[in-house]
Amino acid sequence: RHLGFSAHGSVEVMRRFLEAYHEGMEFCQIQLNYVDWTLQDAKAKMELLKEYNLPVWVMEPVRGGRLAGLSEKDAETLAALRPEEKPVAWAFRFLQSLPEVVVTLSGMSNMEQLKENIEIWGEEKPLSDQETESLLHMAAGMMDGLLPCTACRYCTSHCPKGLDIPKLIGLYNDYKFTGGGFVPAMVISTLPEDKRPGACIGCRSCEKLCPQQIKISEAMKDFDVKPWG
Ligand code: SF4
Ligand code: SF4
Description:
CATH topology of the largest domain: TIM Barrel
Number of domains: 2
CATH architecture of the largest domain: Alpha-Beta Barrel
Strand order of the largest sheet: 1-2-3-4
Bound molecules: iron/sulfur cluster
CATH superfamily of the largest domain: NADP-dependent oxidoreductase domain
Strand content: 5-15%
Structural class: alpha/beta
CATH class of the largest domain: Alpha Beta
Oligomer: single chain
Order of helices and strands: EHEHHEHHEHHHHH
Distance between the termini: 32 Å
Helix content: 40-55%
């Protein structure tokens, strides 16, 4: 009796969908956590949904468990701010700081995680502005080493294979950050074979135009994602 939708698409795709189908929609589910805030444009997606007065349901709040197992250095950074909270709690407290979020779906593998989640969600302890800033700063550090594509699209008109290079690089970054992951394989599966990373012929025409000097051909070669089906 209640209609909503789930989206892994870009902000632009979501905007087109909403322009056509927003009537009757009551909620939207997106991948939202403090890393995807920028990595998957979750902030911009949430702002778009706000324009349509759609509350947000969250999937992947802990990014497949990645945000529960931080490096020692990152865990120490957070512990210095809130000694009583474990890293996984920070992922949830970040979401508690966003009034647009009304439902959070967290995958749990065992009874211990279930108990831990119940305990964390038993309390509302949203982050202060300063804590959010520190968390997002730490998240930016976690993304060091990912390709710095700005989606300027200078490269795309020079690709003889017509690849959507910035889109593929965005997926590649996700793939590298997650160590595989669900979304890159899913999205690649929706592309025709001649638009997937494997279609790159390594001509490097794109690289001559990239202001970020990204080694695009190497990334495409390294993007060994297994599409679904
Ligand atoms: S190297 Fe690959 S991505 Fe770059 S222009 Fe050539 S075919 Fe396209
Ligand atoms: S030219 Fe470089 S920065 Fe611009 S979209 Fe292409 S890969 Fe990204």
